[in-house]
Each structure stands twice: as structure tokens, then as C-alpha cells.
Amino acid sequence: MTYTLLSLGHGYSAQALARRALQHGWRVIGTTRSAEKAATFAAEGIEPLIWPGTSLAPALETATHILASIAPGSDGDPLLNAHADEIAAARPQWVGYLSTTGVYGDHAGAWVDEDTPLTPSTIRGKQRVMAEAQWQALGLPLHIFRLAGIYGPGRGPFAKVRNRTARRIVKPGQVFSRIHVEDIAATLEASMLRPNPGRIYNVCDDDPAPPEAVIAHAAHLLGMPEPPAEDWDTAEMTPMARSFYAESKRVRNDRIKAELGLRLRYPSYREGLAALLAAGDFTDDEV
């Protein structure tokens, strides 16, 4: 049987999964708004589909697996707002929705798991809660994946550390959970092999850590001095950057290990950053 993955909003995490699917001989269809990205997808062996602007019906008819990762807006998931009936009528074997651990809100550094009540404090977190509910209402074999902060190739701190523009913002008690993109792809692949419709999974590594610790470790790996500490209360930051510090929590990942048999390739940022450095990945997005 030929499997077809329809990736709705074919972004960074979905592309990591697509690479695995293509290696196994799958057909992969990916949506994008950009003609330039569509050309890149085609060069990688992915069938591009411009959306909005092109009918989703043929792709929905043939998709055995659907992955949705389009960011919601103030009125929820834009894809479902336009095509809920069509998508609900599809008959895939597996559907995955990429959400965020931001749906849990702030827990002052305490641990949360998949059964923790959803109390988001940010606009983005509230929009994700709305979108999760929209997908759950469709009656499809849905699996929700709540992703922690994503890093990986093209998303590491080394360039900013090397050019001395990295910032080590310190807010006492602040911790974030993270996940390497290849471990996201491995989790999705494991779920496809062991589908459990209705299940929700936190996707994060084993080591929630303060953001300044990651920057300090990157500097150590490069043999450079740590960037000077800046107090969060007085640091100049954009509203977007400051919003990332509005919530602090440690996210449990026991379920992906127990139910999906996942063994993280990068159980902490230490292994992840070492791999990026070994690959010569000197990009400029902080983790």
C-alpha cells in the first residue's frame, strides 16, 4: 500500500517528518502560501499545494495521514474555518495536530502533564486551545502533540554567541522545556505506527532549563566567554520576546516514552547543541 501524508502548513517540524516519510517511499503533499517555497518543496520530492488558492479536495481524498500545523488566529484555525466540512469528510487513518505546551499557562516552574487543566495566559496559548477544540470536534482519528520550544538545524544559538549578539536574560525561577526537531519527527512517526485516536502527547526533552543556561552552554562549547547577564525586569525586549517569559513550567514527557516507546535522541539541550556544533550549524535563532 502507498501511504500519502498531507501536511497542512508544511513548516519546520513537518519537513522533518516528511524527510522520514520520503525515505520510506511515501507520497508527501505539503501546503504553502509561497510559490518560492512550493518550488523548494518540489525539489525535495514533496508535491506542493498552494493554499489558499488551490482546492484541497483531491489531496484530502488520497491522504492516508494528515498533519496540521498552521498557526491559529483570533478566530481559531484558519484551515478549519474555511474547510471544516471537507476535512471532516476525509477518511485518513491518522491525523496529527501540532499544538504547544503554551496551552498549560504559567505554573511558576512546577511540573505539568497531559492531564493538567488548560489555563493559558498568552494570546497564542488561548488561540491554540481554541484550535485544539476545533480539531477535536471533527470526529477524525486525531492525535494532539503539544510541542515545547523547538530547536534543531537552522535554529540554534551559535551564530549570536559567536558574533556577540546573544543575550543572557535572567529571570529568577524561569524555566522552559525544549525539544529537538528530530525528536518531534520521531514522536510523530511512532504515533503513526501506534495510532491511538483521541490521545494527547507532550513532546519535550528530559531537562527543562533556564534560557540563560542554554546560552552559557553554547558559549562554553565555542570556547567563548558567557554573554553578560541581563536582568529581565530592566532588559530592553520586544513585547513578543518578553511574552516568552510570561510563563514558567516543567513539562513531563512520560507518555511518549511509555505509550510510543520513544527514546529521545537528544534528551537535553546539551546533546542537541553538541550535535549542531558537530554539524557546523552556526545559525542565529535562540533556543
TrEMBL record:
Gene3D superfamilies found in the cross-reference section: NAD(P)-binding Rossmann-like Domain (3.40.50.720)
SUPFAM superfamilies: NAD(P)-binding Rossmann-fold domains
Organism from which the protein derives: Gemmobacter denitrificans
GO molecular function: 4-phosphoerythronate dehydrogenase activity
Keyword Glycosyltransferase included in the entry's annotation: no
Classification via InterPro entries: NAD(P)-bd_dom_sf
Keywords for the protein's UniProt record, in alphabetical order: NAD, Oxidoreductase
Listed EC numbers: 1.1.1.290
Uppermost EC category: oxidoreductase
Record carries keyword NAD: yes
Name of this protein: SDR family oxidoreductase
Entry-linked PANTHER family: EPIMERASE-RELATED (PTHR43574)
